[in-house]
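User: Hey, my collaborator sent me this sequence without any context and asked if I could get a structure. I don't really work with proteins. Can you help?
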Amino acid sequence: MNFQRKLLEEKIRLEIGSGEVLNAFKKVDRKLFVPKEWVDQAYSDSAIPLDGNSSISQPSLVAKMIDLLELTGREKVLEVGTASGYSAAILSLCCKKVDTIEIDSKLAKTAIKRLESFDNISVHIGDGSLGLSQEAPFDAILVTAAAKEVPQALIDQLKEGGRMVIPIQMEEPDMQELFLCIKLNDRLIKKPIIPVRFVHLVRSGE
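Assistant: No problem. I've predicted the 3D structure and written it out in structure-token form, which is a compact way to encode the shape of the chain:
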């Protein structure tokens, strides 16, 4: 195995411990999800740019976000922001079904090709802030772009007791915070986790 990849997996293990999320990372080769010109950076713990002002998040952050969902393998999960499909691939090994939505049709079509071998992933093209009402409700939701606030559609489509992980834009310029949200009595209990930096969540018409 590539030495850099082994170092990355060890870093993730130290951050989230052993378990299904770590096992999923070991099974998904990030090299298959990065643009050709960035292949030499595939196993670095850093974000990689994509076309359309999007990016692949750093692996340790993806691991932390998925770990926060506390998946058991039985869940139906919505991912907002497919990008290259890397996070969806890892999610698919940790839950029963993944619906992932991407507003950039070019990115979505590329992700569909990359995810052909994953039979429990459905890629949708559309406005992720609106969720996927036709597939709701979801046991968990993972948002990979920063929103000004949690979209109400996502709250409505999350099951009672479900978990959502989402980066939120703070009032200060260039400041974002990752939040773990748990739905209780139709309301979200929000817990700040760590400062992050994501591309902004794009809505239809923007």
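In plain terms: The longest strand covers residues 158-169. You can pass these tokens on to your collaborator as they are.
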